[in-house]
Amino acid sequence: MRAARALALAVAVLLPAAATAAVNAPAAFAAQYAPGPEWAVPAPAPVRHDPAKPTAVVVVGAHGAEGSDTLAPYEILAATGRFNVYTVGPHRGPVPLTGGLDLVPDLTFDELAGLVAPSLVVVPALPDVGEPSTAPVTGWLRAQAERGAQLLSICNGAAVLASAGLLDDRPATAHWMRLPSLERAHPEVRWVHGQRVVDDGDVVSTAGILSGVDGTLHVVERTLGPAAARDAAAAIGWRHWGTGTPPPVTTGPAIPHPAAIVNAGFTWDPPTVGVALTDGVGEIELASVFDTQAWSLASRTLAVSADGGPVRSRHGLTFLPRAELDGAAAQLDRLLVPGTRAVVQVADGPAPEYVHRHGGFAFDATVSDLARNGDVATARWVAAVLELPTAGLVLDGPAWPWGATLALFALVALPVAALVAVLVQLARRRRTGSAISVTSNHRQDPRPVAW
Question: What range does the record give for the signal peptide (predicted)?
Answer without folding.
Answer: 1-21
